[in-house]
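Hey all, quick one. A colleague (J.T.) asked me to put the 1-deoxynojirimycin job into the tracker so the inputs and the structure tokens live in one place instead of scattered across chat threads. No bug as far as I know, just bookkeeping. Sequence used:
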Amino acid sequence: MFKWANLFNFKKQDFEKTIVSPNERNSCVVFLKNGQVFYRVFRDNKIIIDQSELGFKLCGENPLGVNLKLIRSTMKRHEETIELPWGEDRFIKNNYNEMAFYLTEPKDDKRIFTLRFRVFDDAVAFRYEIPPQPKFQRLSVAEELTEFNINLNSTTWKIPAYQPDRYEYNYEKCSVFDLKRPAHTPLTIKTPRGCYLSLHEAALYNYGSMTIKLNAKNKLSTDITPLSDGTKAHLNLPFETPWRLVMIADSAIELTTNRVMYCLNDPPRQDFSWVKTLKFIGIWWAMYVGEWTWAPGERHGATTVHAKEYINAAVRLGIAGLLIEGWNDGWEGDWLENGINNSFTKSTPDFNLEEVASFARSCNIELVGHHETVGFIDNYEKQLETAYNYYAANGIHYIKTGYAGSQILINGRREYHHSQLGVMHYQKTVELAAKKHICLDIHEPIKGTGIERTWPNLLSREGARGQEYEGGAITPSHTCFLPYTRLLAGGMDYTNGIFDIKNSVKHINTTLTRQIAYFVTIYSGMAMAADRPYIYEERHMDVFQFIRDVPTNFERTIPLAGEIGEYYVVARKARDSGEWYVGGVTDETPRRFNLNLDFLDNGVYLAEIYTDSDDAHYRDNPFGHVISKKHVGRNEALDIYMAPGGGFAIRLVPSQSNGA
Ligand code: NOJ
């Protein structure tokens, strides 16, 4: 009798619904089994994510996700083309089929929540939505139980989570079994059947960042970055979690242009027509190579005199912006320790911000201000409004922020940069900056989850090992990993364009040509030409010409060829000029190939081609390069060579007769 009753209950409450992508290649099955909700994902009718659990363990309450019953489900088809004000692609298709499952606990707590699933041609995404309820107004998450039950024989490319250098690690290829320790997302995976996936999240607000690890059941699952009290998030209801996103592609190269993350973010809620992407040089690399210092003293970099010289250099070089680091009070002594007292309004005695800003304005150069918080959030937040007002009053529309240090100090406690409190702090800076018409380039940031669709003033981030690690800690394959991993989370300020390759303090593991290729292969809404102006002017103005020409805003991006960690070739069309730019990078393996130009529009183009010379090598002959010009059309191909640790860059200018 008891058994029958159970069976009856099970049948009554059970459901299984399938959501299919617009092109019918992907499907997601959501089902309730004994009151517990699960999902599976299929590609071409083959399982890519097997039965996976959903739900939460909560602090001081029953878990959410068991003993459930479906109240109702709704279906929706969505077709839209969204336009982004800047980026790698201007138009993005936001086409999906959606089902929302309204679930309740028929007994006990009687709480309700919604699971919303969207199935795209190149992704599956879902999130939890919890409305406020009479006896359920706030909650603390002990654990999010979301699983991604992927075949354990899959390969993955990962960087470790919860480490002192945040996201700044070399990517490692390993098996999914090695994810016993959590890894950051985007987490790129190749299944045994050759399907490429990336697990990531979109619209991360007010919640701990998602990392991924193998759980006790040997399934990949979320591991939300904890707060120092051990919980994952304290929430007032209503609350929507970030979207859990599974990008899906047939090849590694196809994965690189997955833009679903932006579709899952809201359009801007205010006018951002004032936001402009920017190329800039900086009082910066001179500190890394020991010529200048951040701190005041004989070799202080950020003096009024140097700043004016650099502004003049920016004008000569045709670069619109200048970053000035080390201008403020707080760099003396051990700046990592002393940063707790950094001032964001008080200049060093040899730097006059008003004078420099006024000179920059007279030369039409945008200053990029600098706030190194060293992770002392309490100190920074106290000054935030005044500091942004100070820059705004001086006509400064760009700020690079930094959060060096292994953890942040917030409310007097050490927290992870990627915890709920960290996420909330970064968001506060973005929103305040938007109010003041300031654009941000965040170093040591929270990873990108597409929020720049809503907040386009967030022009760039670091959030991976950048060029400052050169001099031993960057291998030639590092930037061949990034397009398939970190860059799936949006643009990156890699600080490209170091031409002083053989510098004895910071020897660079690339050829010269590869340094300009980065301006195409690593997109950034704020792109730094990072070396000192005199290096460009005295040594390689012929190659610098490419940096001058390459735009920071593209109409369209077409990935052409590549394999994870080996090589990457991409073509991008500029927004306004009709010009195309192509860039490529390779690991230690030299590569010669025919570059098919069929991505071009009709007509004749003048190709300005920058390649490694046949005898170039990142170790022995990094400067060997060839610059050539040729008229070409879309039916032609170019013979391209990339030396070990090398790359290439091409500008294709339409002939006037193209009418482009
Ligand atoms: C680390 C940042 O990545 C770098 O760009 C900056 O110069 C230093 N912090 C100092 O703020």
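Adding what we noticed when we looked at it: Residues 278-550 form a domain with the TIM Barrel fold (CATH 3.20.20.70). DSSP finds 13 helices and 40 strands in the chain.
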